[in-house]
Each structure stands twice: as C-alpha cells, then as structure tokens.
Specification:
By secondary structure, this protein is α/β, with parallel strands linked by helices. The protein has helices at 16-27, 52-60, 83-93, 102-110, 161-174, 189-192, 209-218, 233-240, 253-263, 267-270, 273-289; strands at residues 2-4, 31-33, 41-44, 64-69, 96-99, 121-123, 147-153, 179-185, 201-205, 221-223, 244-246. Helix 1 packs across helix 11.
Length: 290
Amino acid sequence: MKVFLPNDSKSSGIGGGWSFRRNLIKYAPFDIVDSVEESDLCLICGITMISGETFDKIRKLGKKVVVRLDGIPEAWRNPRIDIAGRLQGWCELADGIIYQSKFTKELIGKSLKLNKLNIPQRIIYNGADQEIFKPQGETVSLPFKKKILTVMWRQDPNKRWDEILMRFRIHSQKNPEDGLIMVGDFPNSDYDFGFMFNEKYLFIGKADEFGMAKLMRSCDEFWFPSFADPCPNTLIESICCGIKPKLINSFGGSNEIHEIYKFNKDWFNFLSAKRMANEYNSFFKKICIK
C-alpha cells in the first residue's frame, strides 16, 4: 500500500500536525510516496496543511482520501481559509475520517453531523517517538530543588499561562528552592520578563524535540493545564520521558491521555508512535479494500 501525505504549508514545522507527520513517516509499516500520482491513498494530516487545489487534484485522480481531524483551526492564523467549509466539505468527500481523541469526535464530529456519513471513522491517539522521548538518556543541570516544566505558545489563552504563574507563585511561597522552567514562544519581551520574573524562573525559549526530551528527563513535574487540546503531543512526550503530569484540565483530550497513563498498565507502549502508525495502517487497509 502506497500512501501520500500532501503538504503545501510553508510554516516553521513546529506544532502537533508536524510532529504527527514526522512520526508517521518514521514508523509507517506502509510505503510513503512523494506524489499523489504514485499513491493508493492520501492522508490529509491537517486541513490547513494543504491547498484547496491539492485536495481537488487528489479527488480528480480518484485517489482514496482520509482526513485526520484534531481541533478547530484558529481563524486568525488562517485568514484566507474557509475553515468550516473544509471541515465539512472535505469530510463529506472523504473515504474515511480519523479523530485524534473522543473530545475531537464530540467537538467536530457531532457539530458537523459527520457521524451520519456512511464512511469508516475511528479515533486514533497520537504517539511519541520513543527513540527520543524515553526515561533513559541525556539530561541537563537545572539550579532548583524541584524542577517544574511548562510550555507556552505565544499568548494563547487556552494554554492557561496565567494559571501556571498564579499556582507557581503560591507554590514557591512554601517551596522557595523550587523553580519553573518555561519552554516556548513569548512574542513580547516586556511581558516575558520585567518585574514578574526572578531567579525562581528559567526561560528556555523554543526547543527542538531532542532539547525537549533532555529537559523533560531533567524535571520532576510537567504542569499542563491547557484547555481544549485535542491530543497534545507535548503531554504524551513528557509522560514517556518519566515526568509526572500535573494540573491536567478535564476539558479536552489531555484528560484522555492522563486517564490512559493512570489506568492502562501498558501505557508506555500504547503512547508510542509505533502503535499509532500500526493503527493507521489497519485503518488504511480497510479503506483500500472497499
């Protein structure tokens, strides 16, 4: 079976869709090809990662199409894209739909009545590249007693940065030797630093997957109160590195990942990119046999 993963995006390569794509390519038990013409099936990794022209070409050539849905893309980041039209229109033309979590299926599937489409649909959770994200490996030295890691992407309010700051300030009153290590993208340096930060805070900035794995192995807790995340790779990767997840929000896919960690005895293998790729392979075979 030959699968094409179309990608017209010119963005930085940072984010959940990009991590998913890299992991699937690395662990795929099927052939990844370089063009739609060579393929038996095309997987749309994210509805903002390709153009309408590319989608039309795939359909015109009669290729099987599977659409992967995570959350609802942010309109301000995709001002030229008809988000609703793609979510509904492309799924209605697809041969199969994959949701990242039960939350995604409820959020998008029920809202757009995709459950009424007579096509295969399945929930497949993301997985981590466990050759990188694992308990054993390099660490970094950090100048704190308890090391608390958190992430931030710009000033997205769903990441609940202000909650993290509030909770850490309260925590540090009784635990003055503990520190908060922050990774991510802060666009406004006056907001990032200035009066609110002191020696208890360490701002790292952006980190690639190898840098993140080192930090995760070096910290004691990962604070992730992010709201309405479909299936956060960062949370999965941190758990695979052996760091304890804290402040998990009950609304969104984060809680589903946390439940797997707490109650599935084989959680490490379940949260692997290899398991994820095998589930995609099984689903693709079902589509291609039809």
